[in-house]
Amino acid sequence: MATTESTTTRPGERQAALAELLPPVTRRRPRIGLVSGGLGTYWPQFPGLLPQLKESAAYVAERLGQLDAEVTDAGFVSDAQEGAAAAERLRRADCDLIVLFLTTYLTSSMVLPIAQRTHTPVLVVDLQPSERMDHASFDTGAWLAYCSQCSVPEVGNVFRRAGIPFRSVSGWLRQESAWRRVERWVRAAHVRAALRHARHGLMGHVYPGMLDVQTDPTLLSATFGSHVEVLEFDDLRQRVEKVTEAETRERVALARKVFSIDGSVVDEDFAWGATVSVALDRLVEDFRLDSLAYYHRGLDGELHERIGAGMILGASLLTARGVPAAGEFELRTSIAQLASQSIGAGGSFTEIQALNFEDGVVEMGHDGPAHLALSSRDPLLRGLGVYHGKRGWGVSVEFDVRPGPVTLLGLGQDADGSLSFITSEGTVVPGPVLEIGNTTSRVDFGRDPGEWVDAWSATGVGHHWSLAVGRHGADFGAAASLLGIDHREA
Q: Source organism's superkingdom (predicted)?
């Protein structure tokens, strides 16, 4: 690697440096609705039963309250009328997920209105008090506290007949493996909340010839509820022109804290990238953007070409703060990055670079914006006199993704227009990487690299996607369920 201004910044210090001038973007927490219930006919028959069931309901409410979500507890219902009243309260709460806790047997008429009237995905949770009953000492009343599973097939049948997707977690009250499954659905609600309320910036035009990246903005609004804000490069140009020299110097100083600076970086290009970075922050703030996809072809070094070429530094800083940015007008990939970030898994703009059949890995990465939190070392700013496949020149971000489990998430689109989440889990392993101003990862998918490419391509994924850290295929599968789209794995 070329001579650099060496630093020893650790990931936490990088985030602190970012927070110094770039406060992190606050995200909306998902709204979780909770309603507990059982058949009221039992209460006069077995006086000790209801207090016991309400204790279990209080424990469930407590556990949900410990998660990163806003919880609306609609209380305990005992008949269909109370179920309808709970449905109305949860409808007004505008939840991202409703948890229906079955404490004992109840009739499906008590819970169907909750799913129908709220128009919100429902998770049925039935957790009996302990691992098993004490058969020698239990009477009928004690048994009924363990009888919640009896109504799960009934609810599943009625939901299916009503055209409502059915999801459930069955177990016992303090079973941590059951709670991990519940927590997965809450993480999925984070994705639904992020996409349902997102404002996606789309600036410029599609990279000529890339038919796979073209996306109908109306489809995103219809599928997720997202808003696509169509922007002009002039929106950014006007803000670039208002950046002061002092603001540029401050952004250069910040970049020096976050990045190692390669000897190939030209001071003029560094300052230009810093100027565009300041303007990008204002663009995001002014239009209240949650993501940004962009591309401009340019011509002979004109101003818009220079702005497009100078966006990599600022787009990477935005991505690190929680506003994912993707080049080449890749709207669906910026959405996949936002979904990845909503569960705290990062999410970097990625495509296939090459295959290494000796090491059994797929080499991935991309030029342009990258997610700095994924870096295994101090990210590097490298100066490039030419961008491959794009006009312009300037500074680019380079690093290799830290070793460990990763999950790819792509947003696919089929012939009928429907969207899908497409995932694949692998492991980043150390080894040689290119030094060309790109983000790079070497991913072992536990199979022949060529076979993996065939399987991945057959899913209908485009040639870009989000790379997230950790094992999250099941999380994204659950999120697809809440969003009402397909999930495919490779």
A: Bacteria
The rounded distance, in Å, linking the Cα atoms of 425 and 404 is 11
Core vs surface per residue 5-34: b (16+ CB within 10 A) or e: eebebeeeebbebbeeebeeeebeebbbbb
For 163, the 3-state DSSP assignment is coil
DSSP readout, 356-413? ETTTTEEEEEEES---GGGBSS--EEEEESSBTTBS--EEEEEEEBPSEEEEEEEEEE
Instruction: Give the list of residues 6+ apart from residue 170 with CB closer than 8 angstroms, or none.
Output: 126, 127, 149, 152, 178
Answer yes or no: is pLDDT of 441 > 60. yes
**Cβ contact 460:413 at 8 Å:** yes
pLDDT in tens, 214-237: 999 999 999 999 999 999 999 999
Read off the CATH number of the domain in which 449 is found.
3.20.14
Cα 216 to Cα 26, 118, 213, 330, 331, distances in angstroms: 28, 28, 10, 12, 10
C-alpha to C-alpha distance for 186 and 112, rounded to whole angstroms: 21
Q: What angle do CA 485, 489, 490 make, to 5 degrees?
A: 150
Domain that holds residue 286: 197-489
Residues 263 and 383 placed together within one structural domain of the fold: yes
**What is the spatial distance between Cα 64 and Cα 3, in angstroms, rounded to a whole number?**
51
Domain count, the chain: 2
Are the C-beta atoms of 188 and 475 separated by less than 8 Å?
A: yes
Integer Cα distance of 171 and 44 in angstroms: 27
Tell me the backbone φ, ψ of residue 130, rounded to 5 degrees: -150, -175
Q: Which amino acid is at 203?
A: M
Whether 15 maps to a domain, the answer reads no
SS3 160: helix
